[in-house]
Design goal:
- The chain has helices at about 35, 45-65, 85-100, 110-115, 170-180, 190-195, 220-230, 240-265, 280-295, 305, 310-325; strands at about 1-5, 10-20, 25-30, 75-80, 105-110, 140-145, 150-155, 160-165, 270-275, 300.
- The chain is about 45% helix and about 20% strand.
- It has 11 helices and 10 strands.
- It folds into 2 domains: about 1-130 and about 305-325, Nucleotidyltransferase, domain 5; about 140-300, ATPase, nucleotide binding domain (Nucleotidyltransferase, domain 5), CATH 3.30.420.40.
- Strand 4 (about 75-80), helix 3 and strand 5 form a beta-alpha-beta unit.
- Strands 3-2-1-4-5 form a 5-stranded mixed β-sheet, with helices on both faces. A 5-stranded mixed β-sheet has the order 8-7-6-9-10.
- The longest helix has 30 residues, at about 240-265.
- With about 325 residues, the chain is of the alpha/beta class.
- The structure holds 5'-O-[(R)-(carboxyoxy)(hydroxy)phosphoryl]adenosine and zinc ion.
């Protein structure tokens, strides 16, 4: 079954064809990120205008790269929510019109859950690790991105129970804001990740709220702690920035690792799925994999290209929803 996925929830305009919920035939992502970077964050009005310009060529390119004609498609999957309303509307309107014109079913997919589905995708390439082993369900799902930080119990592809989520900023948002405080570029996550690797130290410590009584997160306090620190001791050189990046990141990662492992233990599951842009973070990947191994839990991270927003994850989860609908 060939599903065309369409994702337009934020600044990426993405389309992909996935076969049988597993094999990526094409994965096209265009981004308006550079149009936003000078503002230090996404400007919704610019994002939705760029979505309108890009949607048609991006879908065309996804079909071309998959070497398929429109009549080879079995269904269309589109991101329903959450996201920027103007951006979402472009993808949804396009998908509705396309589905109506072709007479093919349309499925609406939740963006956050789709991030976890990225762990089930692969290219038909023997060297592609994620194609070798499929995660087993039930699982705990940790979604860490620019807009969301959530922990789910995932019984199957259509049954997710929310165990906890952020009470304020998303973790990627905290990375982006800390980068801004340090005068670094946007998006800040990859820059902080890179700097932190050179900044190991014991001099600076930031405390990320652990909210031990729940599986919720809170990242706004640590962001403010970084701001106060920089106001007290302005950053003079790159060495100072690397130390702050290290202290911030290690505290945030400790909380993410602790909660994800505790959720697995509470639900007695041995599979942990991680997804979202922050799943690309090197320290999170390293420390969470190591801790999971100690606890006999299998941790899965998507390949870096599928951590960030993409439409393959939408097509993949869409396939499962179509199958369920057909019974
Ligand atoms: O999943 P995504 O593309 O968008 C949302 O659905 O929100 O995630 C984007 C976020 C940004 O905040 C970015 O700074 C963060 O992911 N990010 C990272 C890394 N790469 C991207 N954060 C930490 N470390 C990274 N290596
Ligand atoms: Zn996302």
């Amino acid at each position: 079954m060939n599903i065309l996925g369409i994702e337009t929830s934020c600044d990426e305009t993405a389309a992909s064809v996935v076969q049988d919920g597993r094999e990526i035939l094409s994965n096209v992502v265009a981004s308006s990120l550079k149009d936003h970077s000078r503002y230090g964050g996404i400007i919704p009005e610019i994002a939705s205008r760029r979505q309108m310009e890009l949607i048609h060529p991006v879908v065309g390119e996804a079909l071309k790269q998959a070497n398929l004609q429109v009549h080879d498609l079995d269904a269309i999957a589109v991101t329903q929510a959450p996201g920027l309303i103007g951006s979402l509307l472009v993808g949804i309107s396009f998908a509705q019109a396309f589905s109506f014109a072709l007479g093919k079913p349309l499925v609406r997919v939740d963006h956050i859950k789709a991030h976890l589905y990225a762990n089930f995708l692969g290219f038909n390439d023997p060297h592609f690790d994620s194609f070798l082993e499929l995660p087993r369900l039930p699982a705990i799902g940790l979604v860490v991105s620019g807009g969301h930080s959530s922990l789910f119990y995932v019984r199957d592809f259509t049954y997710f129970v929310l165990m906890g989520q952020t009470r304020d900023d998303a973790v990627g948002e905290a990375y982006d804001k800390v980068a801004r405080i340090l005068g670094l570029g946007y998006p800040g996550g990859p820059i902080i990740d890179r700097l932190a690797q050179k900044g190991k130290n014991d001099e600076i410590r930031f405390n990320c709220a652990s909210l031990p009584e729940s599986f919720d997160f809170s990242f706004s306090g640590i962001k403010t702690a970084v701001l106060y620190h920089v106001q007290r001791a302005p950053v003079q050189d790159e060495v100072a920035a690397t130390k702050i990046a290290y202290a911030f990141q290690s505290s945030v990662v400790s909380v993410l690792v602790g909660k994800a492992i505790a959720a697995c233990q509470k639900k007695k599951v041995r599979t942990l799925l991680v997804g979202g842009g922050v799943a690309a973070n090197s320290e999170l990947r390293g420390r969470l994999s190591a801790r999971a191994k100690e606890e006999d839990i299998q941790a899965f991270f998507p390949p870096l290209s599928l951590c960030l927003d993409n439409a393959a994850m939408i097509a993949g989860l869409g396939y499962r929803l179509v199958k369920k609908r057909r019974g």
